[in-house]
Write a structure and sequence with these properties.
Structural class: alpha+beta
Distance between the termini: 61 Å
Helix content: 25-40%
Strand content: 15-25%
Low-confidence stretches: none
Number of strands: 5
Radius of gyration: 18 Å
Largest sheet: 5 strands, antiparallel
Strand order of the largest sheet: 4-3-2-1-5
Mean pLDDT: 94
Number of domains: 1
Shape: elongated
């Protein structure tokens, strides 16, 4: 089955993978890999449709921007030697 992986969406983009379902609920394993490559939690790390993956990646992007804005504001408030 084909899925879209968003686990690393902010660093590698949305990845399309050919996977098989495992005995663990919500977990998939990538086919034809030398080492075990697993993704957990459908809807968080992997998605059945490209549209769902894009929605999740957009949420991740917005959350990261909000986190960075918060960090910048904190740094702007810092003063040294005053």
């Amino acid at each position: 089955m084909k899925v879209w992986v968003t686990k690393y969406a902010l660093s590698k983009g949305i990845l399309e993978k050919d996977v098989r379902e495992t005995n663990a609920p919500g977990m998939v394993a990538v086919n034809n890999t030398q080492y075990g490559e697993f993704y957990h939690v459908e809807g968080r790390d992997w998605h059945r449709t490209r549209a769902a993956a894009e929605t999740k990646a957009e949420e991740m992007r917005k959350a990261k921007i909000a986190s960075l804005v918060k960090q910048v504001l904190k740094l702007e408030k810092m003063r040294f030697g005053e």
